[in-house]
Structures are given as C-alpha cells and as structure tokens.
Amino acid sequence: MLKKVLIANRGEIAVRIIRACQELGIKAVAVYSEADRDSLHVRLADEAICIGPGPNAQSYLNMANVLMAAVISGSDAVHPGYGYFSEQEQFADALQTLGIKFIGPPVDAISVMGDKAAARLAAIESKCPVVPGSDGLITSDEHAIELASKFGYPVLLKAAAGGGGRGIRRVESPEELPRLLQLASQEAEASFGNGAMYLEKCIDNPRHVEIQVIADSYGNCVSLGERECSVQNLRHQKMIEEAPFAGMDADKRREMGECAVRLAKSVGYVNAGTVEFLMDEDGEFYFIEMNTRLQVEHPVTEQVTGIDIVQTMLKVASGEELPFSQEDISWSGHSIEARITAQDPSRDFAPSCGRIVVWDPPKAEHIRIETFVEEGVEITPFYDPMIAKLIVTGDDRNDAVRKLADALSNFTIEGVQTNISFLRELIAHEDYVRGDVDTKWVARMMNEVAGGV
Ligand code: ADP
After folding, report:
1. From the candidates 16, 253, 293, 424, which is the catalytic residue?
2. Tens-digit pLDDT profile for residues 102-143
3. Which overall architecture, per CATH, does domain 4-88 show?
4. Which residues of 310-339 are buried (b: 16+ CB within 10 A; e: fewer)?
C-alpha cells in the first residue's frame, strides 16, 4: 500500500481525498497557497507545504512548486483531484521521471483522451457510437463547410484540446461558419495553447449521461453505472447530477457500460475515469469525450453503488487488483448532488467573496456534504466559486428530489451570496420533478426563475 500521498489540490476535493487516505492508513500531504493558509485541508493533512501566493498560476498551477513539494515531503504518490493538473500529461510524465506515482491513468491514455478528436477516433475503433462529425481535424473553411452540409445544420465546432465548455461554437449556416471557426479556434488557442478544431452535428435537446469506470493494472475494468448531468448552466457547467438516470433500463445501462469499458480498455486505461455521452430524444447515445480523472460528481455513484471510488483509486495505484468484478456491482436508491456556489444569481451569477459568518448546513443520515467551509472562512476571488456539494440519497427519485428540496431549504449561509435560492427554484420546477430536462433546460428556465437573469 502507498505510504504517503500528496494531494495537488485544494477545497472540498482535497478534504475528500485526505479523508480517504487516512481511512486507509496512508499519510496525507496537503499543498496550499498563502490565501488558503487556514483552510480545513491544511489542518486535516498529516503534513502541509505552502506552494506560493493566492493566484492559481503562482501556487496550485505552479508545476515546479507542486513537484518540489512532492519530492521534499517524500511522497510516493500524488493525487491530482479534478481540475488543475489532473488531466495534464506533462505533470503525470514529470512525476514518472521523479519516480513518484501519479494516481490516475498512464500518460498515453491521458494524451489520447486529452485530444478530443483523437478520442473520437478511439471511440469509433472500439465500436462506441459517436456523434456524426469529422474524422479528425478541420483543415480549412471549405472543409468545414463541406462537412457541415453533409451532416446538416446546426453543427458544433469543438476544440480538440477543449474542456470546461470553452472553444465550442454552434453554427447555424454556412455564411457564419468561417467567422465562428476563427473565433472558436482563437479562443481555444488562448485557453489551451492549441487552436485545432473538429466538428460535430448538434444533437437536439440531448441529455448528458456519463459512465463511471474504474480499472486496475491487471486488465480488469468495471462500469459503476451512469450519472445524469443535464442540468447545466449557460456555459455547459453542471449544476445538479444524479445517479442512476431514472430513464435508464437495465439493457441500455449494460450497453453503455460495455461501450465505456471497451473504450477504456482499448487505450490501456488504469484507475477512475468517466466516459461522457449525449443521449438524444430517442434514447440513442453518442460518445463525446472521456475525462481521465475523478469527477466532481463522483459521490452520487458512491451513494448508489456503496463503492468508495477514492479509496479504490488509492488501492489501484498501490498495485492492488480491483476488489470487485462487474457482477458484484448493483445499484440501490437514488442520489442527487447539487453544487453550492458562492455566486449571486441576481447579478448574473457573479462570484461573491467575503467571510462566511454563518455556516449551518442541514444534517441527516440521508445527507452528505463535501466541503472545506467552516464559519470564519474567507471566500477569496482566486478560486472556483463552488463551496460545497450537497448530496442527498433517497429510496427512489421522487424521494431524493423531496429530500433535496428540504435540505436546500435548511441550508443557511451568511456572509456571501449563494446559488441556493436558484437551485431551490430549479428543482421545484415541474419539468425537473418529472425528470424531463435536457442540457438546454436551465437556459430556458433562466427567464422563469431567479428574477429572469
Ligand atoms: P467540454 O470538454 O468543454 O466539457 P464536451 O464535449 O464535454 O465539452 O461538451 C460539453 C457540453 O456541450 C455537453 O454536455 C453538451 O451539453 C454540449 N454538447 C457537446 N457536444 C454536443 C453535440 N454534438 N450536440 C449537442 N450538444 C453538445
């Protein structure tokens, strides 16, 4: 078993991973910025190393400092969490050179899946349905126009190196294509240092359904089932996620799971990963990308499978075989996660900073809260606005939705503005209650709730 793990992250996910390490008797090393000096993750860890000033570029994204901290602390592995270096092959590669284990997939798997055009090709080869689109990259305006007329408008231009919804443009007609291609490519170049683009047909009103997989280094790979993440904001960022997908039957679950496992195996995948699909109105599913890391929404899968994904990641990285096979996996109940953010819904979701003066989350057996926040904590402008994840688990979807409504009503936070009132209105909406949502639903609801932002 690993002895000492450095967590190259902050916030709730650092706290979550530290907890898993300690449950397995592994020493946890935190890194922190000067702005996070008093953070919970720093106090919970067995050791903590300051890696620079508040801004990410100078601390959590300062690769030399993070690597140095791993060396100085004598850590034998690094868990990257999500975001930051979690999907950066250079980081995994540098750790390998230093003889330190990266808790994630092999470098080659990160690089195939990090190039979304290459990932599409890998999916095609492993017989996963993909959205109709280009076989590889767009080479010119004419090429893009020719492809778009073949698949039919609207189409999406997508950045090969994309992530977080950046570098995506919807195109309605050939006239606007060259201009939008240039814009999207420039945005991708600025965000990812790579302006390469590919093209996909736009699926009407899709649902976002993803499969959690986990693999060990002995060729075993298991699907832990699906999550439904269609409640997304205008920038395609997920707001509410659930497991299982209430509209899923056992055959479709098996089919999607097998697809995801085939794809993961085809790239020699090891450790936890998520294969993302869009599902159209007829229930057909199409691969869109694979995230080669732990995801924000992993707790809902843990709740319904009873499997601790973070502990399993640590065991796999320690060289253990997966402690379960596909036949051992079953699902019970229904779990929903709502991302609580320090954002002001009445000001176009602008980040809200300040000191938390009251922090009174709901407490019950069916409620799980992942957070780094306590009374007195300062929410700074440096980091992602997510301050907590509220996870509720019920007997079935109706029960879980009711429990979530209740939990949100009993969550008191003072000192910063939060999205709680907005979430409450969203989940009270009849479409959500019926489970009738798609990835554009929040955009349509924006005019109806929270005063029409
Ligand atoms: P990113 O890596 O930036 O998150 P994804 O490829 O995962 O990009 O897509 C993000 C979101 O964009 C999806 O969840 C979905 O809402 C929307 N999207 C992506 N591809 C398509 C498509 N072909 N048709 C319709 N919507 C899409």
Report:
1. 293
2. 999 999 999 999 999 999 999 999 999 999 999 999 999 999
3. 3-Layer(aba) Sandwich (3.40)
4. bbbbbbbbbeeebebeeeeeebebbbbbbb
- Indicate the domain borders of the chain: 4-88, 132-201, 207-450
List pLDDT tens digits, range 376-404. 999 999 999 999 999 999 999 999 999 99
Distance 165 CA to ligand 1 centre (A): 7
Closest atom of ligand 1 to 229 CA is 14
Structure tokens at 208: 């976002």
Check if 167 has its Cβ closer than 6 Å to any atom of ligand 1: no
Q: Could you tell me which CATH number the domain at 207-450 has?
A: 3.30.470.20
State how far the Cα of 48 lies from the Cα of 45, in Å rounded to an integer. 6
- Measured from the Cα of 238, ligand 1's closest atom is 14
Mutation pick for ligand 1 pocket among 236, 291, 442 (CB with most ligand atoms within 8 Å): 236
- Mutate which of 235, 237, 439 for ligand 1? The one with the most ligand atoms within 8 Å of its CB, which is 439
**To which CATH superfamily is domain 132-201 assigned?**
ATP-grasp fold, A domain (3.30.1490.20)
In which residue are the tokens 């910063």 written?
416
